Amino acid sequence: MSVSYKQIVAFIQVAKSATFAEAADHLHITQPALSVTIKKLEQALGGALFVRTTRTVELTPEGKHFFDDAKALLSHWDTAVLDIKNRFALRRGTLSVASMPAFAESYLPELLRRFNSIYQNVFLRIRDEVMEEVIDSVLAGKSELGFVFEPERKEGLIFTPLFENRFVVVMSTNHRLAQIGELDWQNVRDEAHVIMHKETSVRTWIDEALPAGLQLNIVAETSQLGTVGQLVAKSFGIAIVPELCRYQMEQKGLVCKPFNEPKLHRAVGIIHSSRKPLSMPARFLLEDSKNRLS
């Protein structure tokens, strides 16, 4: 037999009162109903909590021992209920979001500005990491939402697409290819290339899209697209990157040209764990992102 909140409230009131009748008055119930409630509590706990006489009621030694614990339990219960009510009413709490740097620098600030206008009391914890680390962060429960390209493997994840992203070729403003409208493999095959490490998804996609027999002239590899842009800006060569990086690259004074390769199209979207429900703030950010970007 389980112990109920109602029984704990009744026990504390009787312990603070001189008689069952007085306690019943405070609880706005009849004395017989109170007696039944206390009897069920004693049965659930396995022994008497009160010594009853015709005039007074007193705690047994076991009842005295239970009294402080019962008050603490009731206080904790009330605090927990009040806190969750405040979270729903005042939209309190923390939301952890992970994002690829390119998305974090372009689309994310406006999405978070809108989020903050609604959820002003929610603390935002933002991780800007490479795609692989964003996925790991969501799977490990460190981040509730992650903004990434569509993962190849989605075990434990739910992916919500936002928009399609093609790739572009990045170069300095004085590069000879800067005067051409759209580029293809034939245009870039003999150029020096700055590229991502083999362990990254972007590098994998580029390698898979390479025409048979074509080998790029790679002069530098890095793990961050921001570093790719820095090296291109120092005239190391050109780079093939997701168009999502356009803002990053143009901020460095670089030119971005469309790249005509059908295989280099990837969906950008939001991931979250398939094993746990989203909080209200996370659901709002996901739905608002869909409405604005899809």
Automatic annotation (TrEMBL):
<comment type="similarity">
    <text>Belongs to the LysR transcriptional regulatory family.</text>
</comment>
<dbReference type="Pfam" id="PF03466">
    <property type="entry name" value="LysR_substrate"/>
</dbReference>
<keyword id="KW-0805">Transcription regulation</keyword>
<keyword id="KW-0804">Transcription</keyword>
<dbReference type="InterPro" id="IPR036388">
    <property type="entry name" value="WH-like_DNA-bd_sf"/>
</dbReference>
<protein>
    <submittedName>
        <fullName>LysR family transcriptional regulator</fullName>
    </submittedName>
</protein>
<feature type="domain" description="HTH lysR-type">
    <location>
        <begin position="3"/>
        <end position="60"/>
    </location>
</feature>
<dbReference type="GO" id="GO:0003700">
    <property type="term" value="F:DNA-binding transcription factor activity"/>
</dbReference>
<dbReference type="InterPro" id="IPR000847">
    <property type="entry name" value="LysR_HTH_N"/>
</dbReference>
<dbReference type="InterPro" id="IPR005119">
    <property type="entry name" value="LysR_subst-bd"/>
</dbReference>
<dbReference type="Pfam" id="PF00126">
    <property type="entry name" value="HTH_1"/>
</dbReference>
<dbReference type="GO" id="GO:0005829">
    <property type="term" value="C:cytosol"/>
</dbReference>
<dbReference type="InterPro" id="IPR036390">
    <property type="entry name" value="WH_DNA-bd_sf"/>
</dbReference>
<dbReference type="GO" id="GO:0003677">
    <property type="term" value="F:DNA binding"/>
</dbReference>
<dbReference type="InterPro" id="IPR050950">
    <property type="entry name" value="HTH-type_LysR_regulators"/>
</dbReference>
<keyword id="KW-0238">DNA-binding</keyword>
